[in-house]
Amino acid sequence: MPGDAERLFELAELLVRRSTVTGEAENGLSEVEEFFRRAGVPTDRLSVPRADPVVVAGAPPRSGRPTFLLATHLDTVPVVGDPTHPAGTVEEGRLYGRGALDMKAGLSLALLLMQEFHADPRFNLGFVVTTDEEAESAGAWALLEHLPVPPDLVLVPEPTWEKVALSASGRVVWQASFEGRGGHGQGLRTGRLSNPLLALAELLHGLPSNYTPLKGWTQGEGEVTLPHAAHVRLDRLLRPGENVEGDRAALERKVRAVAKRYPGLQGGVNLAPRTTPWLPSYTTDARSPWTRLFLSTAARDGHALRTFHEEAVGDFNVFGSQFPTVVLGPSGEGAHGDDEWVDLISLERCWRSYRRFLVSVPEEGAPPLFRTTGKKAKPRDKR
Prior knowledge:
Layout: H1 4-17, H2 26-39, E1 43-46, E2 54-57, E3 67-73, E4 90-91, E5 94-96, H3 100-117, E6 124-130, H4 138-143, E7 153-156, E8 164-168, E9 170-179, E10 183-184, H5 196-206, E11 211-219, E12 225-226, E13 229-238, H6 244-260, E14 266-271, E15 282-283, H7 289-297, E16 307-310, H8 315-320, E17 325-328, E18 332-333, E19 341-343, H9 344-360
Parallel strand pairs: 3-6, 3-7, 7-17, 8-16
Antiparallel strand pairs: 1-2, 2-6, 4-5, 5-19, 8-15, 8-17, 9-13, 9-14, 10-12, 11-13, 18-19
Helix pairs in contact: 1-3, 3-9, 5-6, 7-9
């Protein structure tokens, strides 16, 4: 489609120039709503409890049609330093600015797809943009209760460097604690008696690398006294198949084993506070009909797209825990950094991959790869 690449790039530049830090995304949401108004796409802004605004778009779903959901987010983390390039700068095929890679480029891709396919009679195409993905994904969790029909496939254009993520680790943050009496000079010479700081240091030294310390603090200390408690928050990515309660039990055993070596100390583990559930891991079956169709049609020049397991987390964990979900997005560098950028040619290739999938959806029935004649439908090749 002539000119679409230019429109894609211009839309991405416009959105990158809008500051949309979590909690302050109104300007960006207005741009999205205005885009849909001009395109004739029905929209609705949802105000859900304990979540920042969510915009949904698409015609009411028709029965008997497959449903696909384009899931995006608009919010970014704050700018910390002084970027080398002003937001919206294009240089040597790179678009610079906070959120360029994560994920305003992908949002732009989704907007163009909605403009072209929202009224396609072969399928229902929905769209959602959240504004608190960089916080606690409250919008995504709340949206699960507002979807009119369950999607057959969720399409997430988050950055993946043009590979397809069919699974992702979940995330949980634990709070490990050691508590004792504390006191004036207590244990300074013996080094062990009721010293929660030493216990905490020993725990951290012995933890495997899949626990990442985020924050440590003490309670009840003075200038020349030991604290009565020391705490640490530990970030843990859980791969599919790893159990939250099993991980908690394993960490508790480590904490209690350390506490036993420090007379007078008690150790424990709790979930760090969060207003929404911690993000679950998920796996999408690569052999399911619509996933197979996506993988076969989104390929470029006859070359299959590589699949991988995503170690990052986001709104896609919420959707992937409930529905088949594929994540495919452009290349770039510096997500959440001061000089974040996205590769515009990579963005165009991703847009074309999604478009090839939507163009290939059959008029009715199951995807072509699963059609049979007079027999029970099954994949031609499960390998």
